[in-house]
Amino acid sequence: MAKPATVFVCTACGNVVPKWAGRCEACGEWNTLEPETPSPGQNDRRAVRAGIRGVDFVGLDGETPLPARVPTGIAEFDRVLGGGMVPASAILVGGDPGIGKSTLLLQAAARLAGSGSRVLYISGEESVAQIRLRADRLGLRGAPVHLAAATVLADILAALSAEKQARVVVIDSIQTIWDETIDSAPGTVTQVRANAFALIRAAKTQGFALMLVGHVTKEGALAGPRVMEHMVDVVLHFEGDRGHQFRILRGTKNRYGATDEIGVFEMTGRGLAEVANPSALFLAERHGHVAGSAVFAGLEGSRPVLMEVQALLASNPGGTARRSVIGWDAGRLSMLLAVLDSRCGVKLSAHDVYLNIAGGLRVSEPAADLAVAAALISAATGVPTDPECVFFGEIGLSGELRQVAQTDLRLKEAAKLGFERATLPRRVAGGARRAASPDGIMLSEFGHLSDLVA
Ligand code: TYD
Ligand code: MG
Asked: Which amino acids does the record list as binding ATP (predicted)?
């Protein structure tokens, strides 16, 4: 039999190409292609499988009991999972190194173990002594978690198959696990994929919930967890700015629930604390009466979140104007600047524009357009926006303001935090209009961005 040809796999997006290149043609990342040789077993399955059985087909209407979820006991975590972990499922928790993945999973493991589930915590990154030290700091020393430091896949699988009672197994991290039968280093795409596959299969056949930690790195030294995303049932990203205290757990894939929920945590000296009221946290450092700031009433999943949009303009006549954006889409900012320029006469082409969502949040909703525009107009005119007012609404290319989803929910959150006014797209035909919301918020409704500028 011919030797299987080596292919190259992108560690960032999983794209497979026959020839090495410096840049992945699919995702555009540099230096992410790694060689991979298909394992010899992959090509002679037919020889191995003598007794072929075929597959059985059934109807859609059969009875399948809903699996009872296992709540972690950490409400913010359970919210993102859609109510808790589903038995025999695999959850991938990805995030930058040092963001707090191990801390979060150790806290979840301790909660679960404390409520009577048998929880195995296998670390390939830290020694048992290090984990105990961390548990001490988190005040979790007494939790009946079963701890092990291991990296060899065969050892882990043997231990798991000897287990009958385990309900939850944590592997920290998948990049440290090593399958000795594969001829590449731990953390390479081949290793990560094979190990994840074996562990997920163990979870499915034995019925425990599997939590895998995966580091996201750009360097390509460790395989990005992207290559496993299609294998697992749930993908969660733990993100945040290491310079800030709070962290956001965001679901990007969930076979058992919605993917747009977020969980908000604060990193404290004693581990991660849940943040039940994120709006208050995100607005805590806001100074009213500063030009270039506006409060956006946003929505993360089913939950309204208020946050501050900050814009700064620096005069730059002659040179190429800079546009720097943190936490929002740069393309959307360019579009808004163009709309402000050609529909409202606000010329910013001779200015560098800096835009920031305060606190390190990332916003993807088009509803933020109006708050960004308000911050930009305020920065351009030097007039602070009303500090008691929230903004939300989408802006179209002709400068028209468009309705966004869940207006009432956003207004309710604003009222809860003591805001008195809101600026939003007009809800009935006609010109600008004033009204009061059921929560007592005074509404200023506009049809076109130029009305707001005026
Ligand atoms: P860690 O969970 O080790 O990150 P990851 O597993 O994602 O690599 O957490 C790393 C950081 O969290 C570490 O730099 C210190 C900080 N930290 C606290 O601030 N408080 C704590 O109680 C703990 C355990 C960690
Ligand atoms: Mg860790």
From this structure: 95-102
